[in-house]
Amino acid sequence: MSDQIQFIVEKLNQEPFRKNYNLITFDSLESTQLLQLLNDVLGEIDPKHAVDIREELPEQTAKRMLSLLGILKYKPPGSISDLSAFRQGLVTGSKPVIHPVLHWLLQRTNELKKRAYLARFLVKLEVPAEFLQDDTVADINKQYEELMEAFKNLHKECEQLKTSGLSTAEIRRDITAMEEEKDQLIKRVERLKKRVETVQNHQRMLEIARQLRLEKEREESLAQQKQEQKNQLFHAEQRLQRAQLQLKEMHHAVVDSKPESLMKKLEEEINFNSYLVTEKIPRELETKKNSTYFLQKVVVEPAMSQSDLSVLETKINEVNAQINQLIEKRMMKYEPIDSKFSMYRQQASIISRKKEAKAEELQAAKEEMSSTERQMLQKTSQARELEGSEVLRGDEFKHYVNKLRSKNTFYKKKRLEIAEITAEYGILQRTEELLKQRHEAIQQQLQAIEDKKGISGYSDTQEELERVSAVKSEMDEMKGRTLDNMSEMVKKLNAVVAEKKASLAPVIKELRQLRQKCQELTQECDEKKIQYDSCAAGLESNRSTLEQEVKGLLEECVQEESNYRYVNCMKRNLEIQLQRAKEEMKAYVSPDPQERRKAVREQYTRMILEQENLGKKLREKQKVVRESHGPNMKQMKMWQDFEQLMECKRECFLKQQNQTAIGQVIQEGGKDRLVL
């Protein structure tokens, strides 16, 4: 606290305050003097607040200071959590309230001056929505917002120019260079003037050249205006096409729909827009404001090093861990396991998330539809601009659409057939792979059984038999002598094969039993799957029914809430009217003449009497004007005749003077002839 007071005293003793305080004199200031000192500091930041607090009420002073501190974004310290206590301390001039404010203001005076200057132009004036329904007020508000944006841009440019680093020496050098160029141009113009003066009719040529330059500038401006008008015409045609398209869609909607469907569609649109206005957009706006606030706070704070960031991250992790622990404790304490509210809360949160997702999908679909409509209009305009292109209309377009639909159905049918064939091909390919794997497994099992029974190589022998049979056929053709030997070998091999088959018969029988069991299990699995699908469909239908009920209840709640607000407003209006009627009756019945004069009836009576007196005076004035109208018109006619008479006399006098002058000239000419 002592360091804070010492800092305040040092700043107050410097420019522009120059108070010459020390710690003792500053600490001995009374509450009024302390408030005046705070007001002087605020007046230095914003000159509008440079007033004497003795000339205004304490409540007005506190309100004015609080408004400025709010604009400057001052937050009371942690020891003063109650705003009413802070306001009371500001009214009474309490030192624990004033000293932190002074310390905060004197720390960042230049920054706060800039903020107060910007607040005069950037603090938006909130206009009620009912006033914005007026076109004039809406236009003025729009101009006000545009001027505010223009001021923001100009201020940013000014700040950029201030921080651009241009020195005064460079500016002076640029000014001297431009002055030298100006002198050179003046000398050059003088030399050209001297050259032109020797040419005949140079003034006329200069005038023609100036007119030519003006005409060229006018031609450029006209070309620019022509281009602007072409752009405006193009935009107007696009707006007309959009309006015609909307009109056609509305005609189709009106022809194909009923009043009930239209009302239902309007109710759905109103519900969606009300959800956007009341829930979605305010939530997004709040998040944007919070993020903007945090970003501004980060921008205002000084630059942070990596060590500061690591310290902040550790603090954030600790706080998150504490929050999680508190949440777990609260859940263990206040939310038992068998509570049904958790399920309802979960369902409500799921429904709200689904609602938000569907609203976002609908918004995206609307934006996509609008972009598609714009693209369609652009393509239509391009098609009209192309030579020889025709835009289908009416029956031709319907025939074209029907043709496309038939082709689309044929395409979908063929595509479905291709998909079925592809699926069948995949199944067959998979069956082939399974058969190959099964064949390999059987071969391995057969080889293992052969090894176990001591007859390994039977399959190889069979393959060898096939090979030998092929060789035998060839050898029979070539040499018939080896036929008997090969027949005996075949008999032996057949006997061996029969023995192997007899030994493998039990294994094949067991394999058949396993296959039958596999089929039974597969059938049972299919039945269980059918039961699961039916149960899932029933649960899904129950869920959709519950969602519809919840939606109906929410709509009913919103309707009842709107009815309640409407009835409450009507009640308030009736109470106000009743109160005004009571006050009027009280003032009318009151014996006090001053109170009677305040009554509306008395006021209107006085106004009626005043208007009657004014009408009487105006009628008297009208009567006087009517009586004097005839003489006045006669007098005006006499003055007009008199004016015409004087005009005739003046013309006669001028003619006489001209004739006299001509006669004198003729006489003088005759005298000169006689002298000659």
UniProtKB/TrEMBL annotation:
<keyword id="KW-0966">Cell projection</keyword>
<comment type="function">
    <text>Component of the intraflagellar transport (IFT) complex B: together with IFT74, forms a tubulin-binding module that specifically mediates transport of tubulin within the cilium. Binds tubulin via its CH (calponin-homology)-like region. Required for ciliogenesis. Required for proper regulation of SHH signaling. Plays an important role during spermatogenesis by modulating the assembly and elongation of the sperm flagella.</text>
</comment>
<comment type="similarity">
    <text>Belongs to the IFT81 family.</text>
</comment>
<keyword id="KW-0970">Cilium biogenesis/degradation</keyword>
<dbReference type="InterPro" id="IPR043016">
    <property type="entry name" value="IFT81_N_sf"/>
</dbReference>
<keyword id="KW-0221">Differentiation</keyword>
<keyword id="KW-0744">Spermatogenesis</keyword>
<dbReference type="GO" id="GO:0030992">
    <property type="term" value="C:intraciliary transport particle B"/>
</dbReference>
<feature type="coiled-coil region">
    <location>
        <begin position="504"/>
        <end position="584"/>
    </location>
</feature>
<keyword id="KW-0007">Acetylation</keyword>
<dbReference type="InterPro" id="IPR041146">
    <property type="entry name" value="IFT81_CH"/>
</dbReference>
<dbReference type="GO" id="GO:0042073">
    <property type="term" value="P:intraciliary transport"/>
</dbReference>
<dbReference type="Pfam" id="PF18383">
    <property type="entry name" value="IFT81_CH"/>
</dbReference>
<dbReference type="GO" id="GO:0007283">
    <property type="term" value="P:spermatogenesis"/>
</dbReference>
<protein>
    <recommendedName>
        <fullName>Intraflagellar transport protein 81 homolog</fullName>
    </recommendedName>
</protein>
<dbReference type="GO" id="GO:0060271">
    <property type="term" value="P:cilium assembly"/>
</dbReference>
<keyword id="KW-0175">Coiled coil</keyword>
<dbReference type="GO" id="GO:0015631">
    <property type="term" value="F:tubulin binding"/>
</dbReference>
<feature type="domain" description="IFT81 calponin homology">
    <location>
        <begin position="3"/>
        <end position="126"/>
    </location>
</feature>
<feature type="coiled-coil region">
    <location>
        <begin position="309"/>
        <end position="382"/>
    </location>
</feature>
<keyword id="KW-0969">Cilium</keyword>
<keyword id="KW-0206">Cytoskeleton</keyword>
<dbReference type="InterPro" id="IPR029600">
    <property type="entry name" value="IFT81"/>
</dbReference>
<dbReference type="GO" id="GO:0036064">
    <property type="term" value="C:ciliary basal body"/>
</dbReference>
<keyword id="KW-0597">Phosphoprotein</keyword>
<keyword id="KW-0963">Cytoplasm</keyword>
<dbReference type="GO" id="GO:0030154">
    <property type="term" value="P:cell differentiation"/>
</dbReference>
<feature type="coiled-coil region">
    <location>
        <begin position="137"/>
        <end position="246"/>
    </location>
</feature>
